[in-house]
TrEMBL record:
Organism, as annotated: Drosophila grimshawi (Hawaiian fruit fly)
Functional description taken from the UniProt entry: Catalyzes the reduction of all-trans-retinal to all-trans-retinol in the presence of NADPH.
Family (UniProt): Belongs to the short-chain dehydrogenases/reductases (SDR) family.
TM segment ranges: 24-43
Subcellular localization, as worded in the UniProt entry: Membrane
Annotated GO CC locations: lipid droplet; membrane
A GO term, aspect molecular function: all-trans-retinol dehydrogenase (NADP+) activity
Name of a matching Pfam family: adh_short
Xref: PROSITE patterns: ADH_SHORT
Gene designation per UniProt: Dgri\GH24349
Name of the protein described by the UniProt record: Short-chain dehydrogenase/reductase 3
Record membrane topology: Multi-pass membrane protein
Keywords per UniProt: Lipid metabolism, Membrane, NADP, Oxidoreductase, Transmembrane, Transmembrane helix
Domain of life: Eukaryota
């Protein structure tokens, strides 16, 4: 702010007296800025590097409210059970009443606290209405997990209009409606955690998943943009954003995985995936893959020319086959 003012002054002042003094002043400010930037830049790189090797503190979620969409099945269900066993109070949302109720029942049987609500995240009005009800019933939601998603798997030309639209509605727009419902209170209190399920299909393209990859790149994109928006609005923001990139998880969503080297890359059990996601959230990581090392390999792979990477991909021959026939 002050820098902008100074440069404006100098522009105004250059016509009259004192312009030269302002110029010198501006150079000094610029040089100081550059020096500070270079120092902070390298300090933060060293800090982040060191953090890779030391255990990070894990936030205490006991007594906190966690809202999970798609809590009736798969990773959503596992996360609900595990958050509850950590002492969190879990608000389960799913479009499927029966499976959602089952999750709530299992949590209660294990001595945990859970509340179930039927919600189709596609319908913005329903999301807003239910969010208001949940806030009234329970108060502030500390942790929001945007998990509900679908994955039709076949070539682009085989995708119907209806399933394509539905996929974008659930995997992308539904997430945004949830944010618009729960973010205002997080901003007001300057606290809270948001977790979003992207995918390895949000890191690189995969055959049979053309529209799905679009939705998962979108998740990565909106989370990354939101982080910047929150940070620029409030440099001291305490709202933590965590984007998750699972590889293939054993939930049934990924119907026909193909592996050449199953011992190297295999289906991860949904229990293990859920534990890994919760850990990433509690550690306040901005990004995490499941398995954890995958993201580093992928980042390194990005600097390698595409042609060379494709040779490696063909060698690994690890894809998802069509769900048709
Ligand atoms: N399973 C994997 O291999 C894998 C890999 C990468 C990313 N993911 C992502 O992780 C998330 C969870 O995947 P999963 O495998 O546990 O899925 P799943 O199919 O096991 O469970 C998804 C749950 O979401 C619910 N749901 C679907 N549409 C909904 C809607 N409109 N409103 C509310 N709830 C709805 C379903 O009823 C179901 O209970 C998804 O976003 C998925 O894209 C999964
Ligand atoms: C976690 O928070 C709960 C509730 O606020 C508190 O009772 C508990 O002692 C805390 N646990 C730790 C390990 O700090």
């Amino acid at each position: 702010m002050s820098r902008t003012t100074v440069s404006n002054n100098s522009r105004d002042g250059s016509a009259g007296s004192g312009g030269q003094n302002n110029d010198i002043y501006n150079y000094v400010v610029l040089i100081v800025d550059i020096v500070v930037l270079v120092i902070k830049f390298w300090v933060s790189i060293v800090e982040e590097f060191v953090k890779l090797f030391v255990a990070r503190a894990e936030a205490n979620v006991s007594g906190q409210f966690v809202l999970i969409t798609g809590a009736g099945h798969g990773m959503g269900k596992e996360m609900a059970l595990q958050y509850a066993s950590l002492g969190a109070k879990v608000i389960c949302w799913d479009v499927n009443e029966q499976t959602n109720t089952q999750t709530v029942k299992e949590i209660k049987q294990a001595g945990g606290t859970a509340f179930g609500y039927v919600c189709n995240v596609v319908k913005r009005e329903d999301v807003m209405e239910l969010a208001a009800k949940v806030r009234k019933d329970h108060g502030f939601i500390n942790i929001l997990v945007n998990n509900a998603g679908i994955m039709p798997c076949h070539t682009l030309l085989e995708h119907t209009e209806q399933e394509t639209r539905l996929m974008y509605d659930i995997n992308v727009l539904g997430n945004l409606w949830m944010l618009q419902a729960f973010l205002p209170e997080m901003i007001e209190r300057n606290e809270g955690s948001i977790v979003a399920l992207s995918s390895c299909a949000g890191l690189f393209g995969l055959p049979n998943l053309v529209p799905y990859c679009g939705t998962k790149f979108a998740v990565r994109g909106y989370m990354s943009s939101l982080a910047e928006e929150l940070r620029l609005k409030n440099p001291q923001t305490n709202i933590k954003l965590t984007t998750i990139y699972p590889y293939m998880i054993d939930t049934g969503l990924c119907k026909n995985p193909r592996f050449r080297f199953p011992s190297l890359l295999k289906l991860v059990a949904s229990k293990d995936a859920a534990a890994s996601i919760i850990l990433a959230q509690r550690q306040g990581l901005e990004e995490a893959s499941v398995p954890r090392h995958f993201l580093y390999v992928e980042k390194a792979g990005r600097i390698i020319p595409k042609k060379a990477m494709r040779l490696v991909n063909d060698f690994l021959d690890t894809y998802v086959d069509t769900d048709k026939k």
